[in-house]
Amino acid sequence: MSSKGFFRDDVTGQGMQPLSLRPRxxxxxxxxxxxxxxxxxxxxxIPSVEVNHMVLYTVAxxxxxxxxxxxxxxxxxxxxxxxxxxxxxAS
Length: 91
Prior knowledge:
- By secondary structure, the chain is mostly helical.
- It has four helices and three strands, in the order αβααββα.
């Protein structure tokens, strides 16, 4: 079996989406540097999981984090009178 076959859904013929990403892949998906991702992880802003001494980021968690950031940014833009986000959210 080729490595491509491993990531292929034989029923639909579509590629299976990964459940988690390594730091470099996660940073690339978010459009940030690996060092920024590491800083956000250390601060607890972006959760990660450790599997066999390897840091992983679940795709679902990254999407939820990005959606939350977008919602807070959209609210601030749509209501300029709204108080700024707390320092806990800023990174």
